[in-house]
Amino acid sequence: MNFILLLLVIPICGFQEATARRHFDQAQEAQRSGDFEKAEKEYLAFLKLAPESAEAYSNLGVIYSRLSRFADAARSYEKALQLNPSLTPIYLNLGILYYREENFTAAIPPLEKFLSHSPENQQAILLAGLSYARAEKYRQAAPYLEKALSAKPDDIPTQFALAKVYLKIDRTAEALKILERLINDYPQSAEVHLLLGHARLSSAEYASAIEQFNLALQLNSQLPTLHYGLATAYNKQGRNDLAIEECRRELELNPQDGETNWLLGSLLELRSEFDDAEKHLQIAVKQRPDFASAWYLLGKIAFRRSQLAEAEKRVAKSLELEKEQEGAHFLLGQIYQRQGKRQQAQAEFEKVKKIQERNRTTKNTK
Hints:
By secondary structure, the chain is mainly α. It has helices spanning 16-33, 36-49, 54-66, 70-83, 89-100, 104-117, 122-134, 138-151, 156-168, 172-185, 190-202, 206-219, 226-236, 240-253, 258-270, 274-287, 292-304, 308-321, 326-338, 342-365.
């Protein structure tokens, strides 16, 4: 990723002009030769004489980026934009900086701003797509990655990124088309087998998914989500002992993974192993406070232990996050019933009936 260096110098009135220009020229010469410490010193000397130079602040931002002083770089770029918002290349520099820092949410606004002025810049298009994807804003990522791929159809990383995004937004057929092409060209790629396994999983082709995951396993057993994918496929086949084993293997690699902790918690809850199940579900909601299914299961465990107040709180949290949960409304009705709250219980059971009716109507209209 290349940062843009600005060459323009703002003229300075009076006898300071020659001195200031000398500092600026020496700063650029040092920057070109890779002497970043000298370049920083010269830019700062220049800014003492020309404190309103957006260009110098921008170039100083590039220097700090090269030195991995990212906070200083961000402040320099922001100062440059404050002084001259029309210097649109700085928005690209700022987007690159945040992307390199893996602050993907922060990278998006400056990249969008830059693209509003330079909509065909391929570097910015790709970075915007990747930033949206890494920020888990998959629907926004797709059009950028599609545009990037149309410009470079054979670019493997972009194909891979777009396939991952398609899987996240339920465009499985399009993901499969990319992945099947990639697997023909790269049959020894563990990453492609892994992603193809997830695509088969999304298509409910569980045996094929397991085959792909096992091929990936032979090539690289340490890949994130590999054992989780196997666990999910085994669970769908009703082979829950194997699913639990694979969840535990995934958690050896990534103990805090929310999805795997949720899946393992749900499998253990079915076995009535409530203490272990609750431990994993608590990790899941810590990682993802909006995890409605995990809150529901935590409520179910509390209900099974007759901890009614805690059960009510957890199920209510689940319904706050996702209102149309038939099972959660039914469970909340049971909790109210056990608490002697008959009217509230009846209201929840009525909600269950309405959800069932809506589901039947939706099914019949399809």
